[in-house]
Amino acid sequence: MSIISIRNLTKIYDGSSVEVTAVNGVNLDFEKGEFAAIVGPSGSGKTTLLNMLGGLDRPTSGEVIIDGQNIWDLSSSKLTEFRLNKIGFVFQSYNLIPVLTAGENTEFIMHLQGKSREERNKRTKELLDEVGIGDRIKSRPNKLSGGQQQRVAVARALASKPTFILADEPTANLDSKSTENLLDIMEKLNKEENVTFIFSTHDARVVNKARRVITLVDGQVDTDVTK
Amino acid sequence: MKNLKIAWRNLWRNRKRTLITVASIFFGVIFSTIMSSMQEGSYSTMVDNVVKFYSGYLQIQNEDYWENKTINNSFHPVDSLYAIASSVKEITHVAPRLESFALASSENLTRGTILFGIDPEKEENVTQVSKWLKEGSYLKEGDDGLLVAEDLANYLDIGVNDTLVLLGQGYHGVSAAGKYPVRGIVKLPNPDLNRQMVYMDLHNCQEFFSAENLVTAMILMVGSPYDLHAAHRHLMRKIKAPYRVMTWDEMQPEIVQMIEADRSGAVVMKGILYIIIGFGILGTITMMLAERMREMGVMIAIGMKRFRLGIILFIETLLIGLLGVLSGIAGSIPIIAYFYNNPVKLTGDAAKTMIDMGIEPYMYFSWIPSVFYNQAITVFIITVLIGFMPFLRSIRLNLINALRA
């Protein structure tokens, strides 16, 4: 049973002189616990597809059904709430809140969800331990390396216990060692906690780890291979 | 609480910029507070001069007197009027006065004078004429002598113990004439009055004008200028025709107009100051928004409601304003306290002009709370208005554009 269904998803950008079709009638389904990578050359529509899937960018047409709900039928406020509770995000440039510590960044999502302080503290510690930076709980992002920041971002994405995590080029700014570490952590979390991960990536190491690889070309699904 | 924490920490991300903005508000508030304090100080000195030297804060008069100031419009200050005045708790002193005109002559010279018949003891609580005494002695109750203003005495070439002849028109056209010894010479700060004033005991004056038991005004003093309107309200309820109650500002509209005109001029100056403060804050907020567009996008993307993000940004703006205002007021308190206790003595032409106007040549500062809180409220309102900008920006934020910023 798929937790995410994408139906005829299309995004057309209305430029000043020409219309650009970034995503063109994409149909995809994702099952719970998938570890999938969306690959393709620059401009193939990976990020646009991920943004629409994450409720960030409204499609021109088509549906994104998550847990039985077409997210684009929701009001802006409800959609924000939906993202908070159902989707975790990992961005290419980490995008942690610079004035909050690693622990506070992780806890922040749970705070928005209205979880109790006790629950927040417990899960924050667990998650940071799990991604291997429990000892840096009180460090602010500017005191952490790129790899460490991305691990905090993963912990933050997991904190809300989302249905799935969208990671847009999560390793693009990391060195090889950090990339390996991060991928291992994400794979472990995927297996142990059965969290669905969907990546957009250029990185061959991510593609190698992924159990499903979807290739986009010119906004359309070219190949969809499950290993 | 979390909102406040994030807002507070955000404030110090660019410490230098925040401090510069806070400093601009700090200095703006200090200048504006000092300017207001000086203004209010000079107004209150001006009013004090008028009130304490001439009119008192309030007067009870015959209802026709102010429009037609003749001794024929005088009245009998019956006990019930004193009782009413005493029943108003804001009123601290009452002094009867008979005011008219007369010609004063010495051996060969004559000049028109303003003649004040006063109760020497009660008048002391109002105008304190005795403090201007230069020679001789102050009047006693029932005294048959006069106090003569210095310039008038010089003109008439008279001194203490000399005799002055007064000639005038008494009550209902009766001729008034008398010879009076000079008890003292007073040097009045107001040059006009210093050329014309003659004081005499009230009973003596009533006798001179054949206005037995009549006065032209009962002068009323209140404990503080802030009690004036309450006292006026109470009196208005109790004093009916043929009497009326007038406040100092009704009797001296030109002073009120002068103060209002001066205030309007200062509003322009303060307006410029506030515009500078406003643009200082606006510049900081605009920079802050431009720098943090992506971060704002991320916060909304991960599930923060736009409204809440707007609140955080709003709090940041308010905090900048509050820090500036509070530090500005804290900084201005010792400065104003110093000048309040040590008024600045003026010299040169400025001092001469003030002396000519009958005002002591000092720049007085005011310590009234409105000097401080008016600035705080104004800057707070400016900050709140500016605070809506980041708030609205977060509500209208294009998420994808923000994430690409």
Q: How many individual helices of chain B? A: 15
The level of helicity of chain A is: 25-40%
Oligomer class = heterodimer
Shape of chain B: elongated
Q: Roughly what is the average pLDDT of chain B, rounded to an integer? A: 89
Low-confidence stretches of chain A at least 5 residues in length (pLDDT < 50)? Answer: none
SS-derived structural category of chain A? alpha/beta
- Name of the level-1 CATH class of chain A: Alpha Beta
What string gives the helices and strands of chain A in order?
A: EEEHEEHEHHHEHEHEE
Shape of chain A: globular
**Mean pLDDT figure of chain A:** 90
Can you tell me the CATH topology of chain A?
Answer: Rossmann fold
The first-to-last residue Cα distance of chain A is 19 Å
Helix and strand sequence of chain B? HHEHEEHEEHEEHEHEHEHHHHEHEHH
Please count the beta strands of chain B (DSSP E, at least 2 residues each). 12
Classify the beta-strand content of chain B into a percent band. 15-25%
Write down the Rg of chain A: 17 Å
Question: If you had to describe this structure to a student in words, what would you say it looks like?
Answer:
The complex is a heterodimer of chains A (227) and B (405). Chain A has a single domain, classed as P-loop containing nucleotide triphosphate hydrolases (Rossmann fold), CATH 3.40.50.300. Chain A contains seven helices and ten strands. Chain A has helices spanning 46-53, 76-86, 102-113, 117-130, 146-159, 176-193, 204-209, and strands at 2-14, 19-31, 35-39, 61-66, 69-70, 87-90, 164-168, 196-201, 212-217, 220-226. In chain A, the strands form two sheets. A six-stranded mixed β-sheet of chain A has the order 6-7-8-3-9-10, with helices on both faces. A four-stranded antiparallel β-sheet of chain A has the order 2-1-4-5, covered by helices on one side. Chain A has 227 residues and is of the alpha/beta class. Chain B is of the alpha+beta class and 405 residues long. Chain B folds into two domains: 2-50 and 255-404, no CATH class; 64-240, no CATH class. Helices cover 56% and strands 19% of the residues of chain B. Chain B has 15 helices and twelve strands. In chain B, β6 (163-169) and β7 form a beta hairpin. The two termini of chain B are 29 Å apart. The mean pLDDT of chain B is 89. The interface between A and B is medium-sized, with 25 and 20 residues.
